[in-house]
Fold this sequence. Notes:
The protein is about 25% helix and about 30% strand. By secondary structure, the protein is of the alpha/beta class. Helix 2 runs parallel beside helix 10 (about 410-425). The strands form four sheets. Strands 6-20-21-19-18-15-16-17 form an eight-stranded mixed β-sheet, with helices on both faces. Strands 8-7-9-10-11-12 form a six-stranded mixed β-sheet, covered by helices on one side. Strands 1-2-3-5-4 form a five-stranded mixed beta barrel.
Amino acid sequence: MPSWPTGSRHASRLHKATILTTIDFSITGLASNGRGVAEHDGESWFVDDALPGEIVRATIAVKRRRVRRAKTLITLKASPDRVVPRCEYFGVCGGCVMQHLSISGQLRHKQANVVAALERYSVEFAADGITGISPSAWGYRRKGRLGVRYVPKKGGILVGFREREKNYVTDIKQCHTLVPELSSLLPSLKGRLQDISGRESIPQVEVASGMNNAAIVVRHLTPLSERDLQRLTSFGREQNVRVYLQSGGPDTIVPLEKRGEPLTYRIRASGDTIEFLTTDFIQVNDAANQEIVDLVLHMLALTQSDRVLELFCGLGNLTLPVASNVDRVVGLDYDEQLVRRGKDNALFNHKDNVEFIRADLTEAPVGEWWASERFTKLLLDPPRSGALEILNTIVPTLAPERIVYVSCNPETLARDAATLTARFGYRLEAVQVVDMFTHTGHVETIALFV
């Protein structure tokens, strides 16, 4: 920046611009994207790198009718929950947004989000009935989708998560949230992708880790040469990684060579072994998932005479542990591949009191088969959109004794809780927040209705 003479017209203009674009903010909240929330002159602002309770001096980054964002220049008063981010890429990489907030601070923030959502929907609950745990904060992600981009000006292949709110790829050498076996794979993966001729046609790689092995799915937009296939094959053998190719949608995923064991993880509570593919939906944090399974079993208060209906069952992560404690369990899901995987997992674990059925749970009614069968307990683990339609259809007929709701979105959980309590007469008995995705704004909640 040029140094203008004191008193010059340029210096006056520069000083005036600085005054107009710099604001002192008192931060009162935290958004899910990790930005501080503040009010100034009757307007709401989002402030980068600012935490609740802090006073920061920030410069205006964006000021439009509906979007007002500022960037912190200096922290005038720091929060006691502020910590030094562990990752060198924090602030650029979009994989994490809260590494500057202590683990306990993140959990309190997520609990507060759940409470606020329930209050917005006027759902009655006991304040001391909402608790939280953060089982694993670092090296927990056993799955990840990495962006890939060939940029000659930056040295060739870039591999990493997308930048914050941008489509650029953050070139990372390691990731502190990936499990160590996946993080340590990044440099060699980047080197191998750099070495193949079809590197420009690869937009992403999905990585996953099981109990004893790892796998990657290489997405490619054009056919790879025979040499490229050989290079990827040798990479898989050298790193003891199963390599899959994906030329289109999920149904185009094929193994590069048929070798090694499938990806699996084990459920602590029941001893069940769950087999999954790299692109299957599973809970990415194993320690948090084990806690969720334990909580679900405890909240359902299962007996050998119970018959349980599970909605959005996936590949059996909760279904099979429940089956170990009841007379019968039926799992419904709209994903045909996950239903097929659930059936295979039940067979592998010798669970003959389980039935997996494909059903469209986004529309009502879902069929009449369930109306003739008596279920004592209801379990559901819906996507972010929640389960309002299916609850309105099934709950009046089944009238289950207990409902356990596993949610990844406080807003739709609160909306559905309002229906269960106000319309159907259930009581929200307990709420447990589990920090599944530490350092992100995502929150997992388990709620019990009786």
